[in-house]
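Please decode residue identities from the backbone states below.
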């Protein structure tokens, strides 16, 4: 009897908590538009130099005035050409490639100070985001100095994003951000998947460093849901 009573109390408590979460939180959905660049063994060595386009969707669950759970799906194109580099060795080599990246990222976004969407006055704050990213990319094969896709591969990445965001009224928000992703692959540029005429793997570049890529752009989101009663979670 005691076990049944305890179970009933737990059920009622969880139901009440779930009801509060579902009806008293604020959510955001929107879009991301920007550019992409990569940092690796081909082309320029600048950390932020967007070339290819990037676009996708973004969703947030604002759990407090200081943090949100965030989910994004982005598609971007990285483009690199040794002829754009200032490195003499790369200029002499002359490699060039393009690759289409798709990523799904889940993590936490932190604001540098309290950010309340429901205040009448305009709100503004810098923020940072990190989490776990799953990335799909073209598997590249070298033909002369160019590379061609021969399928799709995937890897994980760690995002490190810094941005600024501002409310537009009480329903819309606009932001700008720069986000570097450290991937767990050295094959975004095809440098790890190169074979000679005998079929032996002959990677080029620095085989001790994995590839990075950067998505820079603008976000526009729409906020909905009741005014939240934030909990400690």
């Amino acid at each position: 009897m005691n076990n049944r009573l305890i179970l009933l109390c737990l059920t009622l408590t969880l139901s009440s908590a779930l009801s509060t979460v579902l009806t008293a939180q604020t959510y955001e959905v929107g879009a991301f538009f920007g550019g992409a660049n990569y940092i690796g063994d081909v082309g320029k060595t600048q950390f932020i130099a967007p070339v290819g386009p990037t676009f996708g969707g973004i969703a947030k669950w604002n759990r407090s005035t200081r943090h949100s759970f965030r989910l994004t799906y982005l598609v971007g194109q990285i483009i690199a050409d040794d002829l754009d580099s200032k490195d003499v060795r790369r200029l002499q080599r002359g490699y060039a490639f393009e690759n289409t990246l798709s990523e799904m990222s889940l993590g936490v976004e932190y604001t540098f100070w309290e950010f309340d969407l429901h205040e009448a006055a305009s709100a503004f704050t810098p923020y940072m985001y990190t989490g776990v990213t799953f990335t799909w990319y073209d598997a590249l094969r070298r033909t002369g100095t160019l590379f061609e896709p021969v399928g799709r591969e995937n890897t994980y990445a760690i995002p490190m994003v810094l941005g600024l965001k501002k409310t537009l009224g009480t329903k819309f928000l606009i932001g700008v951000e720069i986000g570097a992703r450290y991937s767990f692959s050295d094959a975004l540029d095809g440098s790890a998947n190169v074979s000679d005429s005998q079929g032996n793997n002959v990677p080029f570049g620095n085989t001790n460093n994995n590839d990075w890529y950067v998505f820079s752009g603008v976000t526009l989101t729409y906020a909905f849901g009741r005014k939240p009663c934030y909990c400690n979670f």
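Observation: The first strand starts at residue 26 and ends at 39.
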